[in-house]
Sequence to fold (384 residues):
Amino acid sequence: MKMNLSEAYISVRQYSEYICNLLQTEDYVVQPVVDVSPPKWHLGHTTWFFETFVLGKYAPGYKVFDDEYNFVFNSYYETIGTRVVRTDRGNLSRPTVADVYKYRNFVDEYMAAFLEGELSDEIKEIVTLGLNHEQQHQELLYTDIKYILGNNPLLPAYSAQEMLPFRPPVKKEWLPVQAGVYEIGYNGDGFCFDNELGRHKVYTADYQIASALVTNGEYLEFINDGGYTDFRHWHAEGWDWVKSNHINSPMYWHLLDDTWHCYALDGFKELPLDAPLCHISYYEAAAYASWKGMRLPTEAEWEIASDKFAWGERWEWTESAYLPYPGFKKAPGAIGEYNGKFMISQMVLRGASVATPPGHSRNTYRNFFHPSLRWQFTGIRLAK
Fold:
């Protein structure tokens, strides 16, 4: 049964707190690297979004919870004003975790009352964007929590059980796609992000795409064959990244007594060889494909073929740079900063991952990251 906006709001907000239920207070405030934000900050930032873009703009007489929170929880919106530098989010011992939960409760109470009133289409659109924005941060919560705990010297488990299991491996086949003109981009009546709009035609030559993702065991063959020491497989920038960062395996892999282990949300364990490969950079994905004598699919090829294979366990690197679709236009005001200004120096990933919240995936979704990043649940699907 489809939820109304009030029910969807409650559901999404509760799920963020569900993800954090297993954390200790100390876990909420850690920021090991710039790309990881403390869980406390995610909870505050997603609340700030509704306070700033909904209540502050459309709820008459609304008074912000704390005047300083705009500075603390603004992420990258230049239109909204100054903000804490991203690298300093881990220095925010105040506001406390308890303060942030009070902030969430305060805003949620106002939002509950506000959503019971008459809402214009404009308000419905911004609330829906806010819910999808929070769902993006729910995936970031999982990935950031994993990085925080996975870089703790004790490698503590987030949960006694693996909360993000993988499907049993399937027989890998090559799925052919005939050359032709196809359409890609969002084409529906529901929500999508602005970077999915501008449905347009693309031409592709004949190609084949793998029915299954590359597994840990398959990637281990690349490592054992000296993949990280052979420059021939790497882009020049990727090879520099390998050497300068002393990279010799995917993130969270550890070689212990000649046996590969990995850190997962249920703790440190022997590497499951049949599980889909995870936590690799675009550089590594492209190098592996080169080693196999194959390539990564373009995002158009991926979308065209997406109804032929199961997807959703890993964000899949593509060979496509993150660029605007034909006719792309930024929305006016701060919301226009949501996607457009990041369309440079990043690569597109398609699909979803085991950390993606339910109902937050579609085959036109365009995720994007810098090619060196790998703390997300990223993997490889080959093409040829």
